[in-house]
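As a warm-up, study this chain.
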Amino acid sequence: MTFSVTDSDTGINFIFYFGTTFFQQLKTIPNPFFYSLVTALVNVVSTPISFWSIEYFGRRFLLIWGAVGMIVMQYIVAVIGVTAGAADQNNPSAVKAMIAFICLNISFFAISWGPCAWVIIGESFPLPIRSRGVGISTASNWFWNCIIAVITPYMVGNEAGSADLGPKVFFIWGSFCIMSLTFAYFLVPEMKGLTLEQIDKMMEETSPRQSASWKPRTTFAAEMGHVRTPYFAAAPVSSSSYQAEASYSPPTNPGGIYQGDGGYFPGGGSPEYGYGR
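Now compare it with the structure written out below.
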């Protein structure tokens, strides 16, 4: 649930929900709706990159560096917005620079926090409560989206009673991204290349900051006695042992049962090679 909160508070929904209104407040853009379409296009084009990067670099890596990228981009937008890009400065070049950094911020989000949040939510819960955990996380995400949609007009509006923050609102979103970075660094483990059962075991045996170096010592099937324990879980053996292993033939009793260390297996099978024919 906390992951859904930190994902929603990155400021991305502000850009997509109120981007056109925000660009109008800058007063130097002739077609604010066009730039809203540009930000949406950047999001669509950048997201497929995560299909490759999430497995190549890992979830934790993308979350940490994605948050760093968003922090830098949002603070740059805020600084430009209160200096050269302020509405009373009437500086179109500075405003275009703000939009460029906003697009870079969207790209960082679309490659990292956007897809990674849902991948980790689906992987991190134990099997018995996975469906309920994902459901609660999704509800939490929409709950915070609703809160942002309600309070943002008062944050950036210029009507009476509104905060009229304008570009200064990006200082707030950048600060929230610092919270997201802290959460990812201390509490989110690396789950790249692991099965759901191995993720549960990894969370039992190591901390999130050490999780990237954790390696599985066995498989779920091996623990259940369905297959031979993998070589990486055993002690080093000599070449003669490998030759003996290659020539090993399990005793069978076709049509009957095989009694081994793991119990009785019908159909002439063995515990090393499964339940039989």
